Amino acid sequence: MTVKDITLILEEFAPLTYAEDFDNVGLLVGNTSNEVSGVLVTLDTLENVVEEAIAKKCNMIVSFHPIIFGGLKKITGKNYVERVVIKAIKNDIAIYSNHTALDNAKEGVNAKICEVLGLSNTKILLPQKNTIKKLTTYIPKDNLEEVKGALFKAGAGNIGNYSDCSFTVEGNGSYKANEDANPTKGSIGTTHMESEIMFTCVFGKNEESAVIKALLISHPYEEVAYDIQTIENTNKHIGMGMIGELNKEVSETEFLEHLKLKMNAKLVRHSNFLNKPIKKVAVLGGSGSFAIGAAKAAGADVFVTADLKYHQFYEAENQIVLADIGHFETEQFTKNLLVDYLTKKIPNFAIHLSESITNPINYF
By the 8 A CB rule, do 1 and 35 touch? Predict the structure, then answer.
């Protein structure tokens, strides 16, 4: 199995097209054609993680956070990022990161937090915009089922819990082939009328290349007329953060005790208590201050996240309890999520959960 094979499996789970624009995801170090002896999964790629990979005979590291975030103009070993890259290259170890692609995945980082906290009836807190595409094309009536089947197989026509969704209208198409054409139907130099079906379906933006390829291969025409548009419909299955419910209402202190226990948090920084029971819980792994407004709008009783600044606690405005448990703490189970996924997809392959400590924050 090659590095490319592993990355394709990972991108079925968290397509890189769903990563945020500012992010640096994908294969950061290494050659896609290299054979993989073993995979080490970690939250961060530090020097001790590379050393662990060497010791465990793993020549690929799957890291949630990207070790290379900004551009590298020099690689001289003057800082920890450059030293990691040098050590990885020297030992022929590939490094792959999926970061915000996994943040935005329906079963990703935030779904894992919800699972650990025991939340049910979960949904995306901040659906990602511009993720749904619409295809319109024109298919000869006799070829409709063949082309439609190919498009559905490529991932088109999926809307939430429904598949094979489309809309068709019957009409007549016309064209005249010039002397350089090789028409499937009709003759060169003569206007041809064909009974056609206008076929429309939607698909996720991560499936665009596969859908276009399937259309061009299955369609009988030499020149295929089609149109792709990005639509503004809300995609309820892709986006940042999640909101769910506890099985029963608990007090604010009971919830924070539950939170500390389940998330292995050393402490919880929180806004003022409102003396109201906690039932509806919003979560966002990592730095989530940008979602405070969304959590309030969704009617959450508490918002669990990290990296809140002093003045951001004021944004609770006596409408919600903000609970900051730390960046590492919100994302710590992400590597377990990835190990479980890879183990199910390739059960007879060496997938290792990193034992290296990468949390840079200590508590006294």
Answer: yes
